[in-house]
Design brief:
By secondary structure, this protein is mostly beta strands. It is 0% helix and 50% strand. The strands form two sheets. The chain has a five-stranded mixed β-sheet, with no helix packed on it. The chain has a two-stranded antiparallel ribbon with strand order 2-5. The mean pLDDT is 81.
Amino acid sequence: LEVNKKQTLIFTSNIANNSRNPDGNKSIEFFVTWTIRDEKGNNVIPPFRQKHEGIPPKSIDNANPATLTWTIPQDLPAGSYKVILEVDSNNRLQEFNENNNMIYRYFNVIE
């Protein structure tokens, strides 16, 4: 994905719940954390936490999205960057797989 400076990006990821909890964690609030890093792994923006309401059990077809809207600063150097979404970093949700709570996407800022 190639983007320009001052361009607004909208990152969205659906969050589904395949819970070990019979109630499906539907009443548990948790946080999602967005991070944008440069090629060296330095944070371009401080990690941004969003509160997310509980999600329905077995919500694979009924997933709730997490969204980050970010405008690329004019002074951001051209190069490769990575946006990272981490869900439930505090492990409040009971899940079958605790190792699939992070997703990322690369993008290139061009002059």
